[in-house]
Amino acid sequence: HTPGYGSAAKYIGSITKEVIRDGLVYDQQNVTLLEIMGRNAGWLTGAAALAKCEDCEGPDMIFLPEIPFDVENFMKKVEELHKRKKSVVVAISEGVKMADGRYVCELTGTIDYVDAFGHRQLTGTARYLAEKISREVGCKTRAIEFNSLQRCASHIVSRVDITEAFQVGGAAVKAAFEGETGKMIILKRVSDDPYICVTDIYDVHKVANVEKKVPREWINEAGDYVTEEFVSYIKPLIQAELTPIMVDGLPRHLYYTDVEQKQSR
């Protein structure tokens, strides 16, 4: 896994729980779609399953980009859930694709921006499906894009994640002093119980712009949820917290002053 993944997963699991609780407040039928980052890999979207615990039933469905997405089949599943439940919550990846290879968000006709790698900006999947549900099922819908929040919510970081980030930084400096070049530091899990992770170096050319997909066996047969193996993989990465320093009720971020920057030069 990459540094930062544990904290992003922790945020997604936490906010998914809170959105589910919020949907139960209103005495009316509603469907909420959570659009989560990840392009063509569902690691972040799958983290929504962390919300399922003794005080929360978790999202009703989770759709990862590793499985072709059938819009009409999805609509049928939502209708069935809608008949049985007051509030339906679905986590869906921004990068889910239909069988013909098109992203669902392309159905909105609003994708314009392309980055330096030739990747189109993926946005609008949840909005498109929410509008379709509203029209065809006839209930209140909400489309929530977690967007940048899932990668910048430093108030809910994982202590395990922070510790590993420091380890990666130290290993990178050591490798540089030893003359390594064209390499990157990676994290390798040695043990699940107890959780043990070590650093290693790897050829960056074999990693850059390559996607690591969620294994098919970690997605259920129906393709609308993740398995316990997936959740077990994530759980060690979200453990413990690093409470932010609060000043006047807001978190204080570390920064360099002009004097410190001059001294560091």
What does it look like?
- By secondary structure, the chain is of the alpha/beta class.
- The protein folds into 2 domains: 5-152, Rossmann fold; 158-210, no CATH class.
- Helix content is 32%, strand content 17%.
- It contains 8 helices and 8 strands; from the N terminus they run αβαβαβαβααββαββα.
- The chain has helices at residues 5-23, 43-46, 71-84, 125-136, 149-152, 159-177, 228-234, 258-264, and strands spanning 30-36, 61-63, 87-93, 140-145, 183-191, 196-203, 246-247, 250-251.
- The strands form 3 sheets. The chain has a 4-stranded parallel sheet with strand order 2-3-1-4, sandwiched between helices.
- A hairpin with a 4-residue loop joins strand 5 and strand 6.
- The longest helix is centred in the N-terminal third of the chain and has 19 residues, at 5-23.
- The chain starts with a helix and ends with a helix.
- 32% of the residues are buried.
